[in-house]
Each structure stands twice: as C-alpha cells, then as structure tokens.
Amino acid sequence: MTQIIYGRHPVLAALRQADCHLEEVVIAQGTQGHWLGEVRRLARALGVRVRELERPALDRLAGTSHHQGILARRATYAYKSEGELLDMVSSLTAPPLLVAADGLTDPMNLGNLSRSALAAGAHGLIIPRERAAGVTPAVLKAAAGALEFLPLFRVTNLADCLRRLKEAGLTIIGSDARVAKNIYDADLTGPLALVIGSEDKGMRARVRQQCDLVVAIPMARQEVGSLNVAAAGAVVLFEIRRQRLGKVPSSKLRPLRKSSQLSF
After folding, report:
1. Domains of the chain
2. Model confidence over 179-189: pLDDT tens digits?
3. Where are the alpha helices (DSSP H) in the chain?
C-alpha cells in the first residue's frame, strides 16, 4: 500500500532520507520557490520520478488544497514496535527522553507534539494502537518533517509499556493541569517518559497509575484553565531540555542592549 504526504517540509524531509521509499513526487503546475530546485535535485539523486499536475488534480490527489503545491507517494508509514523501543532505550548512552501520547485523536495535535518532541531532544514518541490518531497525511503535514527523524512506536497496551519502561529505569512523568505539583519544582534531568493525555479526558486511569509523578504548568492567569495538549507538551518538553542543558553561569550571560537599540 502507498501513502500520500504533502507540504514542502514533509516532502523535503522524506527526500533527505536515503531510505525514503518514495515512489514519486508530484508538483502543481505553476508552483514557484527556491526549494523546488532542492526537491528536484534530491529526487534525481534518489531516482524518484517527478511529474507535474494541474492544481485541481493535485487537490483531489491530496484530499486538500493545503498542500503548498507538492505531494509525494511512498510506502505506508512503518511504525516501530515495543520490542524495538526497549532495545533503543537499553542502547542509549544519554538519559532517555520519551513522549507517550495517551489517546490523542486530533491529527494536528499529534503532528505538532512530534515536532516539539524532536526539537526538544526526545528519543521517541509512543502511541497506542487503538482509539488514537495514527500517521495520516494531515499528521505528517503538521509534523513538518519531524516524523522522518523521530522514531514513532505503536504499542498494544500503553500502560503495560510504561510499566516495562519503569522496569528499565525510567521515571514516568504525567502532565495534568489539575494537580498542585509545579513542573518547575520537579527534577526532570534523569531518564524520563513524559505522558500527555487525550484532548478531552486526559490520561486514562491505568496509564495514570504508572506515573511516578504528575505535574502541572503554573498559569499566570486563572482565566486560562489549561493549554492545548500539544502546547502543554511543548512547555514541559522544553523545561526538561532547559534542565538538561543546565543553568548558564551568570558570568557567561550577555547583557541586553538598551531598548532604543533593539530591532525586530
């Protein structure tokens, strides 16, 4: 079976993989941009066919008009298994950082979370097989190429998977706006798996039971009860990133210029 991916960043990210398994790249007639030269160069190097279609035909092929004038066909996305996850964790030399999405159903949330996870240095993203979004063209578009580089593990039972990760030495951290524990008071420097709950129900009970700690993002304004799940995940991920980088000594900090000198 084949899968459609669309959008400039997802297609370019796929072409930058030596084992991308792309069958063809399709460009809308009249599409312009300096990035098209790189698309054609990479496709030629990989032996991937490039053809052009009228834009309405490309809209029908993509199933949307929000494709930025380009799409590609490739083999269906290959998820990694729980066994591969445990093998990867045991082989890492740095403290593992994993993200587990417990039942996200919105493709935009899954795509955006994967992008933040990659940017923050996560080693992989875990999703359940049932009652959750999988990899679709919309997810790949939102991920903007992140899922070409971030391993995605699909497991049958997320709670059992988290238990095995605990046995492997990871601390399981949950995110929930309703708890009192502040993320900025938690030590997030060790081997971690961060659990992000679903859009409407949060973490399921069995998944929550596996958490060693559940933290919340403190809100400056109480009118904002919580953040979108992908936004909340990004905040926690970059707090983990900040703690792992360590504080910059004050002697190394550069003073800000006077406001009259600032430019935007």
Report:
1. 2-75 (3.30.1330.30), 82-245 (3.40.1280.10)
2. 878 899 999 99
3. 8-15, 35-46, 55-62, 82-91, 107-119, 137-143, 158-167, 205-209, 229-245
